[in-house]
Design goal:
Immunoglobulin-like; 0% helix
């Protein structure tokens, strides 16, 4: 199994805009596993994207990320 390099999601908790370093966002779901509509992701600079979670209700979300064929899930708190 491949090991995914360190990823950064910030700020966490977030008020809406989340920065993603070095990965592609594959999906977003709540802690009960219900899929949320994939938020808009925009390139900010090489290797860094921003994701707009402002349309989602306050809560805890699981962001599924992919990098070089490896997948990882990160917990994010949306205020």
């Amino acid at each position: 199994q491949e090991t995914m390099p360190a990823l950064l999601l910030w700020p966490n908790p977030t008020n809406g805009i989340l920065n993603v370093n070095g990965a592609t966002v594959v999906g977003v779901s709540d802690v009960l596993g219900r899929r949320a509509q994939l938020p808009t992701v925009r390139a900010k600079s090489p290797g860094i994207s921003t994701m707009d979670l402002s349309g989602l209700p306050t809560g805890v979300y699981l962001v599924e990320l992919e990098q070089d064929g490896a997948r990882r899930v990160e917990r994010v708190v949306k205020r």
